Amino acid sequence: MQLDPFAPALVPAGEFSEHDRASVYRAIETRRDVRDQFLPDPLPDDLVSRLLGAAHAAPSVGFMQPWNFIVIRDPKVRQAAWQAFSRANKEAAEMFEEERRDMYRSLKLEGIRKAPLSICVTCDPDRAGPVVIGRTHNPRTDVYSTVCAVQNLWLAARAEGIGVGWVSIFHDADIRELLGIPERIEIVAWLCVGYVDQLYHAPELAVKGWRQRLPLEELVFCDRWGSQ
Ligand SMILES: Cc1cc2c(cc1C)N(C[C@H](O)[C@H](O)[C@H](O)COP(=O)(O)O)c1[nH]c(=O)[nH]c(=O)c1N2
């Protein structure tokens, strides 16, 4: 898309009404990682386009826009992804200390088959050539940018009544093979996406006693690492 050369480059920032502002914070505060609450209703194409548009509006290093979105509806592909998850999840359980293992196994950590749609988000490190503004001294900023796209999608989905669940318990090679992703492309996220009518009031891992939200004051330093 070409920019209109006659349009003013700077426009008034505009104000958010109190209601607008509250809506943004409400989306942020009530966004949840969804695993089991997905409804089977299919997502209309225009809705999916809006979510992808929100993702594509994310900031990116040097305006690199390194993302791709693989939209997966085929139940056979989702079934195969679930099998890959199951294999990795069995291995994952073994990595936790014995006292935590049973609890880990009791957690639901994906909604791959229940959600009618999955979106695999990838990062192309070569999208903007070998030298990119802002990435010259930290090559990982391409992935950071892609994660910003995921978060935009997640928040837009919340406002649309759509739940999103991020699944990362996979062997990279399994997903690469399943979706035909070339080696040079980085797999960033597998997102389960679907309508929801109920959400946990707090992170499910907190509700289930796995881990609680940390006090913000402990995470904020003044002027120097460790100084509060
Ligand atoms: C990079 C990354 C990877 C994962 C996640 C998140 C992120 C950011 N989360 C979701 C995670 O558990 C969740 O965000 C936290 O527990 C906080 O809960 P809310 O997102 O606030 O509901 C997640 N959840 C899950 O059930 N299975 C998973 O494999 C993953 N993987």
TrEMBL record:
InterPro entries: BluB, Nitroreductase, Nitroreductase-like, Nitroreductase/BluB
One GO term of the biological process aspect: cobalamin biosynthetic process
GO molecular function per UniProt: 5,6-dimethylbenzimidazole synthase activity; nucleotide binding; oxidoreductase activity, acting on paired donors, with incorporation or reduction of molecular oxygen
Enzyme Commission designation: 1.13.11.79
Superkingdom field: Bacteria
Residues of the Nitroreductase domain: 28-195
Keyword Oxidoreductase carried by entry: yes
Catalytic activity, as annotated: FMNH2 + O2 = dialurate + 5,6-dimethylbenzimidazole + D-erythrose 4-phosphate + H(+)
UniProt keyword NADP, yes or no: yes
Entry keyword set: Cobalamin biosynthesis, Flavoprotein, FMN, NAD, NADP, Nucleotide-binding, Oxidoreductase
A Pfam family that the UniProt record links to this protein: Nitroreductase
Enzyme class, broadest EC rank: oxidoreductase
UniProt record similarity statement: Belongs to the BluB family.
The protein's assembly and partners: Homooctamer.
Database matches in NCBIfam families: BluB
This protein's name: 5,6-dimethylbenzimidazole synthase
Organism, as annotated: Rhizobium gallicum bv. gallicum R602sp
